[in-house]
Amino acid sequence: MTIQKQHSLSDPVTVLSGVGVRLQEKLERIGINVIQDLLFHLPHRYIDRTRLTPIGVLRFGHNAYIQGEIELTQVRYGKRRSLLCRISDGTGAIVLRFFYFSKAQEKGLQRGLSIRCYGQVRRGPNSLEIIHPEYRVLSDAQDDELDEQLTAVYPSTEGLQQARMRKLSEQALLTLNNDKHNLTELLPEEILAKQNLPTLIDALDYVHRPPPDADVQSLIEGRHPAQQRLAFEELLAQQLSLLELRNELRTEHSPAFDLSTQHVPEYLERLPFTLTNAQTRAYKTIASDLNKSVAMLRLIQGDVGSGKTVVAALAALQAVEAGYQVAIMAPTELLAEQHYNNFLSWLEPLGIDVVFLTGKLKKSIRINVETRLQDQTPVVAIGTHALFQDSVSFAKLGLIVIDEQHRFGVHQRLALLEKGQQHDKYPHQLIMTATPIPRTLTMTAYADLDHTVIDELPPNRKAINTSVISNERREDIIERIKHICSEGRQVYWVCTLIEESETLQCETAIETAEKLTEKLTSIKVGLIHGRMKAIEKETVMQDFKDDKIGLLVATTVIEVGVDVPNASLMIIDNAERFGLSQLHQLRGRIGRGEIKSDCVLMYQSPLGDLAKQRLEIMRTSSDGFLIAEKDLELRGPGEVLGTQQAGIPEMRVADLMRDAHLLPEIQNTAKTLLAQHPGKVKLLIHRWLGKNLDYSNV
Ligand code: ADP
Ligand code: MG
Fold it and tell me: How confident is the model at residue 441 (pLDDT cuts 50, 70, 90)?
C-alpha cells in the first residue's frame, strides 16, 4: 500500500500519482496546472445511479438510469448503419441505439439478458431511444446494488476519461484536507451568513463528492447551496474583473472634444427629417461624454430602425471638428458599404474626408487608405474589422464606433481600445446594437459600459403584421407574392442556415431563387448571398432599391443594413431555425415606409413545442427587448449572442438565467470588496478567471 504523500495545493499536477507528461498536457489544455486547479474544475453535471426509473414513466429529455430485459438486438442498415437493442421492464420498452459498435458488443447484447443503462432519453423514429448509453449487462438481475451517491461528471477534453478525472479530483480533495489553510476564504463572513451559504471548503467537498443523503434534485438542477455559493463567487469574480477594467479605463486620459458649433448644426440643417426625442437625448449624452477627458465607453441600444446611424454621425462630427480621426466598424462588408455610402453623402458636402477599408479592397487601394490614416488630419474611416488589422495605424484616432456590437466580443472590443492608444491616450468608444441586451447580461458581460437606450422609432413607421404558416402552404404564399408585386410593391424571401455552413446556405438560396423564378414568370427575381462579390451584391441591392427587382431571395446577409421602404412583405423560410433576435432583426428590414407590411414565418412541419412557443412570441410581439428576454430564457445567453460573441467567458458553475437572482447581491458585494478589501479582489479574479482575462494581451 502506498501512503498518500503530503502535497500542497500549489504543487503542479505532476506530483499526483498517475500524472505523466501526456496527461499533464491534456490537463493543461483545459486550464489545469496545479492541484488547486483541479478543485476548481467543477462537475458540470451528475449521473444519478442511486435509483432506477421505470421505463414506462420516461419522458424525452430525461437523464435516466434504467434496467430492463433485452427483447431484441438487430443491426439496422439505412442512411447510417446502427445497432438497435430493445429492452423492456414490464412498465414499458425503449430502444438503445449505437452508431459505433463492435461485433463483440452486438453478440454481448443477447435476448433475455438483463441490462442497466444510463443516458439521455430522446425521441426516436418509432419510440423513445437512448443513443450510446453507458451500459452494463448484469450477470444476475437481482444481484446488483445501486450507487449510494451521485457521480460527478467533469468537463473534459479528448482522450481524458471521466474515471481518470474522478481519480484526479479525489486526490485533489485529499490534498485539500491536508492543506486547508492554503485555500483562503475570500467571501466576507457577513455575506456568507446573510445568504446562508456554506464555506468554500465545504462547498467544494460537497459538489465534487455529494454525500449519500444529498438532495439529488437540487444538485442536478444546480440549485444546491453548495453550488450557489460557488456560483456566487464565480459571478462575483466576473463582475469584479469588469469593474476593475472599467475603473482602469476611466482613469486613462482621452482627448476632450469641444461641443460642435459648426458641423453638427449644419448637418442637422441638411437632414430631410428632424431627430426623434430619443435620438436627441442620446446625442446629448454622447456629446457631453466626448467633452470629457475620460474615455467614453457607451453602449447605445436601439431597436431596428430607431435611427442609430444618425446618432453615430453626430458623434463623428464632433470628433472631426475637434481635429480627430474616427473609425466606424461594421460586422459585414455589406453593412460597411452602406454606412460608407451614407456617410459619404452626409459628410462630403460638409467638406469632410471619408474613406472605406475592408479586407476585400485591392492592395494598391488599401495602401492608399492606410497611408491616409497615418496623416494627422481628420478623417472618418468606415470599414469592417480590417480597420484594426496590424498594418493599419491611425495617427490621431479620437473615436471608435462599433455598429451591431453583438457580433463582437468583450475581447475584441478591448483590443480595439489598445489599438487606438497613443501616448497614454485612449480613443472614446461608442457601441451600437439593435439586439436589446437583456438586463441579466448587461449586468455581467457589459458591466464595463454605460448604457443609453433609444426607445422610440421615427414617427413614419407602421406596425408589421406577422403570421406563422406551415411550408405546406407554400403555394398560397406564392399567390400572395404575385398579388403584392402586382400592386407595385416588393418582397424579400429569406433562406435560413440549413447547417452551420455559409456555402450550404448560399446553395439553398440559389435553388430557391431558381424555383421561384419558374413559378413567378411575371416577376423579376433577384438573388443575394454571402459568396457573391461585393460589387455584385451592391448591384443587386441597388436594383432592388431602384425597384428593378420585385422579389429578392436572400440569405441572412440582409440581416443588417439595407433600407428599402417599398418592400412590404418578407417571407422567412424555415423560420424555426433562427434565433428570435435574429428574426426580429430580419423583420426590421420591412415596415420602413408608409405602407403596411407583413412578415410570414414559414416553418417546416411538424413543429416542436419549443419552436411553436418561440414563433408565437414573434407573432405577438414587436418589442425587441421582450423578444430578447424570451430568447435568452429559451436558449441561454451563449446562443443568444453567440458563445464567443457573448463576451462571457465560459463559466464553471454559474448559469446566468438560473442564478440571476444572485446578481443584485453580487453587485453590492463587488462594491464592498473594491472599497474595503482590495486585496481580495485580485485573488478572486485570479482564482476564477486565471490567465484567461489578461485584456491587455487580447
Ligand atoms: P438603425 O437604428 O436600425 O441602424 P438606421 O440608422 O439605419 O436605423 O435608420 C433607419 C432609417 O430611418 C434610415 O433610413 C434613416 O435615414 C431613417 N431615420 C433615422 N432617423 C430618423 C428620424 N428621426 N425621422 C425619420 N427617419 C429617420
Ligand atoms: Mg444600423
Answer: low
Please tell me if the domain spanning 252-454 has the same topology as the one spanning 464-621.
yes
Pocket test for ligand 1, best of 267, 270, 271, 273 (most atoms within 8 A of CB): 273
Cβ 621 vs Cβ 464: under 8 Å: no
Say which ligand is closest to the CA of 278: 1
Q: Which residue lies with its CA nearest to atom 16 of ligand 1?
A: 307
Q: Are 257 and 310 in contact (CB under 8 A)?
A: no
The Cα–Cα gap between 508 and 494 comes to 10
Residues ≥6 apart with Cβ < 8 Å to 640: 435, 438, 441, 579, 581, 628, 631, 632, 646
Superfamily of domain 252-454: P-loop containing nucleotide triphosphate hydrolases (3.40.50.300)
* Cβ 561 under 6 angstroms from ligand 1: no
For the entire predicted model, the pTM comes to: 0.67
Question: Given this model, what pLDDT does residue 695 score?
Answer: 39
Measured between its terminal Cα atoms, the distance across the chain in Å is 48
> 206-215, 521-530, 630-639 — which is least confidently predicted?
630-639
Give the whole-angstrom CA distance, residue 82 versus residue 98. 6
- Range 52-145: architecture per CATH: Beta Barrel (2.40)
- For residues 160 and 186, the model is more confident at 186
SS (HEC) of 319-364: HHHCCCEEEEECCCHHHHHHHHHHHHHHHHHHCCCEEEECCCCCHH
Q: Where are the alpha helices (DSSP H) in 523-623?
A: 534-545, 580-587, 609-620
**Residue 313 per-residue DSSP state:** H
Ligand 2 centre from 506 Cα, in Å?
24
Q: What is the pLDDT of residue 1?
A: 44
Contact 210, 202 (CB under 8 A): no
| Residue 147 pLDDT exceeds 60 | yes
Q: Where along the chain do its domains lie?
A: 13-46+152-214, 52-145, 252-454, 464-621
Please check whether the domain covering 464-621 is classified as CATH 3.90.850.10. Answer: no
Residue spans of beta strands (DSSP E) within 384-497 = 397-403, 428-433, 450-454, 464-470, 490-494
